[in-house]
Design brief:
Keywords: ATP-binding, Ligase, Nucleotide-binding. It holds the Pfam family RimK. One of its GO terms (molecular function) is ribosomal S6-glutamic acid ligase activity. The chain starts with a strand and ends with a helix. The strands form four sheets. A five-stranded antiparallel β-sheet has the order 13-12-11-14-15. Helix 3 packs antiparallel against helix 4. It folds into three domains: 85 residues, Rossmann fold (3-Layer(aba) Sandwich); 128 residues, 2-Layer Sandwich (D-amino Acid Aminotransferase, Chain A, domain 1), CATH 3.30.470.20; 60 residues, Dna Ligase, domain 1 (2-Layer Sandwich). 31% of the residues are buried. The protein is globular and about 55 Å long. The chain is an alpha+beta fold and 287 residues long. The protein has ten helices and 15 strands. The longest helix is centred in the N-terminal third of the chain and has 14 residues. The mean pLDDT is 94.
Length: 287
């Protein structure tokens, strides 16, 4: 069995160790993992049907592909030519857009922050109407990027600078949640909860590990598990991270879903080999 592991070239450099783990774990169970650079893929329509080439040539298609970047259009193209993609295009299309994620997950009737969806061309006008403090997020930002806290103490110049940084994308407005500056990532493979990791901001309001937040393993309560399962039931997940903000009383408030979920903090604070678990899941899924 052969699987593609799709990365941008720049991301593959800083994730070399993670890529090597996929290759080694695949070898142990009879899966050949091939690193494929997304920049070298050409795809579209030719002779009235879908086509895909790699480095300017036809390429033998794999049994499956693991997508490690936000590119729903490519995910869909791979599916259309018969390749099973992990995660699938439905997950990629919804979960890489915060507004679409909130809109879709709202049917689960779980605690969520009140959210306003704002088209980028309307943001400059609508930002004048917000109550402060308010968080404004790009719908496609990841890792804490493109997230800004608008407060009364910000100067008009600062607010305008924030707006200009966000104008390239649609955004969501959310009231700032007073809490513990903590959030929780729940790792899910298929329908199974694998682990949960609590992240605490060292400073400011962003608790992302990549921005220097502290991480610790976390045991979910029965009610928290039920909340997570309500979200899982809405999707056909393969491997994702479901993120929650912790409110003032420690309650879980849904935040977002990471389609291209990272695993560094899971390896740091648990002994779970999530790459091996994921490839074993893929093997069983395809057999």
């Amino acid at each position: 069995m052969t699987g593609w592991l799709l990365y941008k070239k720049s991301d593959s450099i800083r994730n070399k160790g993670y890529i090597d783990m996929h290759v080694a774990a695949g070898n142990r169970i009879g899966i050949k993992i091939l690193l494929i650079f997304v920049e070298d893929i050409s795809f579209g329509i030719d002779k009235n049907t879908w086509f895909l080439s790699y480095q300017g040539k036809k390429i033998r298609t794999p049994d499956f592909a693991i997508m490690r970047m936000n590119y729903p259009l490519l995910t869909k193209q791979l599916e259309l030519i018969g390749i099973t993609v992990f995660n699938n295009s439905m997950v990629a299309e919804i979960c890489n857009d915060k507004a679409r994620t909130y809109q879709y997950v709202a049917q689960a009737d779980i605690p969520m922050v009140p959210t306003r969806f704002v088209r980028n061309e309307f943001m400059s006008e609508q930002v004048k109407q917000i109550a402060l403090p308010t968080i404004i997020k790009s719908v496609s930002g990841h890792g804490g990027s493109q997230v800004f806290l608008f407060q009364s103490e910000n100067s008009e110049k600062e607010k305008q600078e924030y707006v200009e940084k966000l104008l390239s994308d649609h955004v969501v407005f959310q009231p700032f949640v007073e809490g513990k500056n903590q959030d929780l990532r729940v790792y899910v493979i298929g329908k199974e909860i694998i682990a949960a990791v609590l992240r605490t901001a060292k400073e400011g309001f962003k608790s992302n590990f990549s921005l220097g937040g502290q991480v610790d393993s976390y045991s979910l309560s029965k009610s928290e598990i039920e909340t997570v399962k309500k979200i899982i039931a809405l999707f056909e997940f393969h491997f994702v991270g479901i993120d929650f903000i912790l409110g003032e009383d420690g309650e879980l408030i849904f935040n977002e879903i990471e389609d291209v979920v990272g695993s560094r903090m899971l390896y740091q604070c648990t002994d779970i080999d999530v790459v091996s678990l994921y490839l074993e899941y893929i093997w069983n899924y395809l057999h």
